Amino acid sequence: MRVLVAPDKFAGTLTAVEAAEAIAAGWRRQAPDDEIVLAPMSDGGPGFVDVLHATLGGDLLAVTVEAPSGDEVPATLLLVDDTAYVESAQACGIHLTQAALGEFGTTVGVGTLLLTAINAGARRVVVGLGGTGTIDGGAGLLAALGADADVSLDVGGIFLDGITEVDLDIAKGLVDGVEIVAATDVDNPLTGLFGAAKTFGAQKGLDDETQVMMDGFLEQFAAVTDRRLALAPGAGAAGGLGFALLLLGATRVSGIELVAEAVGLAAQARAADLIITGEGAFDYSSRAGKVPAGVAAVAAEALRPCVTLAGQVLVGSREMRALGMDAAYSLVDAVGETRAFGDPAGALTELAARVARTWSA
């Protein structure tokens, strides 16, 4: 058999590259004659740059940027010819914030990455949006590019209260002639019931009252910039970073679709007999913009079976098939929670070997 292994990261335990290698090791243990092809994936969140570098090659450029807390942290952008790939989570990821820092966190670091890419000669910059801990509407990013306002843009979304004017001329001038692409895993607007604050605020440390307050501040920000763009799909991605990029003329695309195209996933799927994907938790959120659903769609188009190996499987068999999966296997169910979190690579290798007994011809 020819087996295509295309997982996402297992958040908090394994990168997509590590997960793919662990699955391949387990499969080879049980079915050594099968041909294994690795295609680690990302939806634009953490691991975006690593996944693309593993497939596309290119040059990695190390940068020091400002984290949401104001501390300096290392980040890396990928240069492939005249295209740069930027991972917002490296500069303002939720792993860089504290429990209740979301409303105070800045996205200045993402702006620094964007500016560095342009100064390095990139004529196209793809920004992966996902896994962030901030919610400032991208105001910090705009400030890093020279935007000005009658409130501070670089100290967190909570300080957008009272904003009445914003000058984006310098920021727009810096990106003039550069194609900007926002690669997102969600299509939420900036504000409202399904906006950045009310949908993703809890995971960024905002309680219910603060979510309502922050939605109001983002609405003020939209009112003095572009209300129409605030309603556009993807404007609410990454705490509103999507909105800031749209203000700069960006095009929004699905992160998983962009990565799938970049790695030639469709052609690889047609050449495979079986496709394996995976992520930390396979649940209802996996259906929209996430790696397993994207990989399953490619597998379906190629008329190939697709199975998921996940840390946890939180949907039933009917829902699993509705998400495009022929089967789903839980790491926690197979080896127990202690082993799954204590030795994630070894546990995933073991699970893959078990799955190979069923699926390898």
Automatic annotation (TrEMBL):
GO molecular function: glycerate kinase activity
Keywords in alphabetical order: Kinase, Transferase
InterPro entries per the UniProt record, alphabetical: Glyc_kinase_flavodox-like_fold (IPR018193), Glycerate_kinase (IPR004381), Glycerate_kinase_RE-like (IPR018197), Glycerate_kinase_sf (IPR036129)
Pfam hit, one: Gly_kinase
Enzyme Commission numbers on file: 2.7.1.31
Superkingdom: Bacteria
PANTHER family: GLYCERATE KINASE
Family membership noted in the UniProt record: Belongs to the glycerate kinase type-1 family.
Record protein name field: Glycerate kinase
